[in-house]
Write a structure and sequence with these properties.
68% helix; mainly alpha; 3 helices; 92 residues
């Protein structure tokens, strides 16, 4: 069963904006997880599963305020920035 992200059913125009939010959330999770894994790979030599999951969470946190208002490309950019920034905030 695929679970929709929190708040995807609370949009003013439920069908279009809800689908837009779900699509953006899926893309930002993937972009943030890959950005975290890449930053961790560069800084530590190998990515970790916990780091990839943390990147996905960081992406969801970053996209939540803009979820219904940004398209797929800005969502990916937000995910890359969030995943990279959150990864660099980790102690060595």
């Amino acid at each position: 069963m695929i679970e929709a992200p929190a708040g995807s059913g609370m949009a003013p125009a439920p069908r279009l904006i809800s689908l837009h939010r779900f699509d953006g959330d899926a893309e930002v999770r993937a972009a943030a997880a890959l950005a975290w894994a890449s930053a961790e790979w560069i800084s530590r030599g190998k990515p970790s599963v916990l780091g990839i999951a943390s990147g996905a969470v960081a992406g969801l946190v970053a996209i939540t305020p803009a979820s219904g208002f940004v398209g797929p490309t800005p969502a990916v950019v937000i995910g890359i920035i969030a995943g990279s920034y959150a990864s660099l905030q980790q102690p060595p």
